[in-house]
From TrEMBL:
Keywords: Membrane, Transmembrane, Transmembrane helix, Transport. The chain crosses the membrane at residues 34-59, 71-90, 96-117, 129-151, 157-177, 237-261, 281-302, 309-332, 338-362, 374-393, 399-422. It is a multi-pass membrane protein. It is found in: Membrane. Its main location: membrane. One of its GO terms (cellular component) is membrane. This is Sugar porter (SP) family MFS transporter. Residues 5-428 form the Major facilitator superfamily (MFS) profile domain. Belongs to the major facilitator superfamily. Sugar transporter (TC 2.A.1.1) family. Pfam families: Sugar_tr.
Amino acid sequence: MLIAIVIVAALFGLLFGFDQGVISGALPFIKQDFVVTPFMEGVITSAVPLGAVAGTIVAMVTTDKYGRKPMLVLGAIIFFVGSLASALAFDQYILTLSRLLIGVGIGASAMTAPMFLAEVAPARIRGTIVSAFQLMITIGIMVSYMSNAAFGASGDWRWMIGVGVFPAIIAFVGILLSPETPRWLTLNKNADKARDIIAHLQPEATDADLDRIIHEIKESAHEEDAKPAWSTFLKKGILPVTSFAMIVFVLQQLSGINAIIYYAPEIFKQAGFSGQMTQLLATVGVGVVNVALTIVAMYLVESIGRRKLLILGFVGTSISMAVVTGATMAAIPASPYIALFGIFAFIAFFAVSLGPLPWLYMSELFPLRLRPRGMALASVANWFFNFIVALLFPVLLSGIGIVGTFGIFTICCVAGIIYAIAVAPETKGVSLEEIEQRMVMES
């Protein structure tokens, strides 16, 4: 049962990744049908993260009241409608509005799915299970790149985008058949049902184990029966968690990952690769590396821990971005291949660290009653800076060029190293209730 639930919830990551990645291959063909300036290109691309800000806010105000499951059901419906409308769009404005709707679904589910996974997972494997969400994001990106390559020869961008309706249907059916999380049920005075679900999720647990888990959840919620005020996030024990959860997402976005995800073919073109199919196939390579190293991350996050992995990720992405910047600056025959190596190395380090860890941290660090609002704050920071990068990248590329743009990303990655060393906590193998107790003692 646990495996089935994890697959269904993580499938929302696939929808997230697909709708992020598909625009990279579709844009060159969209520009043949519609009038698209560099700024409009940024608007079409950034509509998804902008919509995700709104989706995060919707999830924040409804997830505690109605539950994690209903929000994921709504997310699947939005994905379906948005993907279908995007594929049928008859001008750039309808396409932008449709992608804005998709963004609402992504924002709502990207906040709710990691929370859902963290709340059904046993502590000993929680990092691996929540990382499954990031794995499915990378699989979704890879699937979108493969869809782009498959329809690239015909230039049919509508089918590239329209493929997204099929996983949306599967996610909708799957989440309808899944239970609500035990923690939400306990919080909402339904501990008996929560106990039954935990027994199914952890069949090895004894009656004493089940009683202990329910007791810990009740204790964690006992002190915060009232709806927490926003000022709670400024309290001594909570403010460091709030700032860390938000800043690590900001640094993730400023590393340059979504510039690569959204604009990979254009980046390969700027790096010196000619031919549209060559650029699309190189993009598929990015997707494959992303998936492979995210699988490695699911092991490493529990073996070497969160803190060391985060530091390693920023070190690796800094070096990789510096290689890309240097390769595009040097006018030598090998420059395109050095840049390609740098981009692949960047994707590898990102996938093994910076990709899954912010989602995992935000689902672990906030106390139960603060979790929806805390995760909303972190998600808004994520999506807002995702929006900024997606909107401005084409403008920066046409202005200061690829060298200047990637130089900025390199500096941001170096800043990430310093921040991770100074601040990043370790939560490996610690129950959500124990993490909460630490913060109570610190406040």
